């Protein structure tokens, strides 16, 4: 049984994430303890609310260093919603720019859409070789609730066979719905709120650990 830590840094649907990951067969702990977070087979970084507030919470528990150390050792990390957004270099909300964890280049910005937030079920366009979405129908819908997203993908590893796998969705414009980049995977939607589809996706992540 894989051991998974849900990183508790004061943001995110911690118990929902805990239940969802436990449902698919993992041994789950919710904690901010660095040792547990570093030693777990997988680390989940949830997040809801404002980019700047989530980033401040992450820094307060040394979460940026935990994520960086895990990734340097090739150990899996899964970001969810704002937990995905703070992996980018920066976020801009109400004209204020905040620094992110900087694992990926790029900026998280407000969606250009008539209705914001983007709230409800939506489809995604995943690459054919995606591990995260393996076994899921292209018409599968996932649950989104957000006003901001990465509207561009700026990382290109340039190494054959190692290019990041980027999944897109559309609400007013295209935005990054998920990404798989080595041991670092993330989703803009909430797999823990996406029913059987979300459970299947989490199972795919667990298989990668």
From TrEMBL:
Gene3D superfamilies the record matches: 3.40.50.880
Boundaries of every Glutamine amidotransferase domain copy: 5-206
Could you tell me which SUPFAM superfamilies the record lists for this protein? Class I glutamine amidotransferase-like (SSF52317)
The protein's matches in PROSITE patterns, at most eight in alphabetical order, are given as: GATASE_TYPE_1 (PS51273)
EC number(s) recorded for this UniProt protein: 4.3.2.10, 3.5.1.2
Keywords in UniProt for this one?
Amino-acid biosynthesis, Cytoplasm, Glutamine amidotransferase, Histidine biosynthesis, Hydrolase, Lyase
- Reactions catalysed: L-glutamine + H2O = L-glutamate + NH4(+); 5-[(5-phospho-1-deoxy-D-ribulos-1-ylimino)methylamino]-1-(5-phospho-beta-D-ribosyl)imidazole-4-carboxamide + L-glutamine = D-erythro-1-(imidazol-4-yl)glycerol 3-phosphate + 5-amino-1-(5-phospho-beta-D-ribosyl)imidazole-4-carboxamide + L-glutamate + H(+)
What metabolic or biological pathway is this protein involved in? Amino-acid biosynthesis; L-histidine biosynthesis; L-histidine from 5-phospho-alpha-D-ribose 1-diphosphate: step 5/9
Q: Source gene?
A: hisH
Pfam families recorded for this chain?
Answer: GATase (PF00117)
Catalytic residues, per the record, are 81 (nucleophile), 190, 192
Keyword check for Lipoprotein: no
Subunit structure, interactors included = Heterodimer of HisH and HisF.
The subcellular location is: Cytoplasm
Species of origin: Amycolatopsis dongchuanensis
Give the protein's function: IGPS catalyzes the conversion of PRFAR and glutamine to IGP, AICAR and glutamate. The HisH subunit catalyzes the hydrolysis of glutamine to glutamate and ammonia as part of the synthesis of IGP and AICAR. The resulting ammonia molecule is channeled to the active site of HisF.
Highest taxon listed in the record's lineage? Bacteria
What's the protein called, per UniProt? Imidazole glycerol phosphate synthase subunit HisH
Q: Does the keyword Glycoprotein apply?
A: no
